[in-house]
Amino acid sequence: MGTGVKRQALYFTAPHQVALREEALPPPGVGEVTVATLVSGISAGTEMLFYRDEVPPELAADATIAALSGPTGYPLKYGYAAVGRVIQLGSGVDRGWLGRLVFAFQPHQSHFVAPLAELQPLPAEVNPETAVLLPNMETAISLLMDGQPLIGERVALFGQGVVGLLTTALLAGYPLASLTAVEPAEKRQALARRVGATAVINPTTPDSLGQLQAALGGPADLIYELSGNPQALDQAIAATGFDGRIVIGSWYGQKQAALNLGGPFHRSHIRLISSQVSQINPRWRGRWTHTRRLDWAWEMLRRLRPSFLVTHRFTLAQAPQAYQLLDESGDTAVQVILTYTSSPI
User: What is the rounded distance in angstroms from the CA atom of residue 137 to the CA atom of residue 128?
Assistant: First the structure.
């Protein structure tokens, strides 16, 4: 693969606009490989903030991922769930890597070059459409570690997007008193039941708070706010009992959360816990590393096989339609993926 080789890359070019650009693909250097992308997953939460221009401008796209460490602002190449096949080796790379299926935290693009340290070989039992869920599964594990669910607790989750559904699926393996999902979209309600929720509440119905506490069996001990809707956080506070915990996994971007903290909250000793997967809670760092947590994300993908969460597939050329779907009719989708031609270039 000589000089002058091109790739197709997806860019956010303006609010509500994405476009493909052709750009040079460098050859792999020492310890690097070239990967032809097969599928990549669109994050309906984070990426829609970029799509709608709702990201605080002072933040890097993702300071913890080398491929995304630059500042935000248009044009922006983004995405962090790419699965592909190694098609070219740089010097010093064992030939056993050639043809291997790998995951990488890389933007949406037809090909990329990455060092071996940034690649995750796919386990034999995990197919590419399951592997694109790796970042979401790692996030779900991080949420459980931050919330520390206990035996017999009443647990609720606001929001049943991909992260919410995976978190529900993990919690379903715990000996909880109740596990209630709060979600307005019918398709996601059905999936919540499929992955193990003991009850599902529509937050738009009258007396949804009373319905939630009835389904839980009382005030919640632990709530996960994963809806991306700042108003849901106030609802979560109202549903939480004395000394309860609310883990906030949503990223609201520039949207503000108006909270009623002048009522029962003042005396409730409720804890609001921020949770984001790029860090490991300080209390776990003596024993847990990102590698150990990622290994367990692979293991849970292998056990749960959640590729049924993929509801829509678009080719890379159809990416504008994919983002328009998520923006205008997001309740009809769960995991949207982009597909690529895997032939060498």
Answer: 14
> What residues form DSSP beta bridges with 111?
36
**Distance from the first to the final alpha carbon of the chain:** 8
Q: Strand 178-182's sheet: what is its strand order?
A: 199-201, 178-182, 154-158, 220-225, 240-248, 271-274
- The answer to whether residue 116 sits within a structural domain is yes
Q: In whole angstroms, how far apart are CA 17 and each of 10, 192, 264, 320?
A: 11, 32, 44, 7
Identify the domain containing residue 207 by its residue range: 135-283
Domain-located, residue 290: no
Q: What are phi and psi of 90, to 5 degrees?
A: -80, 175
Give every CB contact of residue 124 below 8 A, 6+ residues apart in sequence. none
- Identify the segments of the chain with pLDDT beneath 50: none
64 token code pair: 């913890």
CB atoms within 10 A of CB 85: 18
- The predicted pLDDT at position 5 comes to 87
DSSP codes, 304-333 = H-GGGGEEEEEEGGGHHHHHHHHHHHGGG-
CATH number at residue 110: 3.90.180.10
Residue 151 CA to chain centroid, in angstroms? 26
Q: How many domains does the chain have?
A: 2
At 81-114, the pLDDT tens digits run: 999 999 999 999 999 999 999 999 999 999 999 9
Question: Are the C-beta atoms of 181 and 160 separated by less than 8 Å?
Answer: yes
Calpha distance 214→209 (Å, rounded): 9
Q: Is residue 298 part of a domain?
A: no
Nearest by Cα to 334 from 187, 194, 190 = 187
- State pTM to two decimals: 0.93
Q: How high is the pLDDT of residue 60? A: 57
User: Of 210, 267, 199, which is closest to residue 235 (Cα–Cα)?
Assistant: 210
Instruction: Take residue 12 and report the two structure tokens written for it.
Output: 């956010």
- Residues 39, 98: one domain? yes
The confidence score (pLDDT) of residue 339 equals 98
Whether 83 and 106 have beta carbons less than 8 Å apart is answered as no
DSSP 8-state secondary structure symbol assigned to residue 270: P
Q: Which helix (H) or strand (E) holds 235?
A: helix 230-239
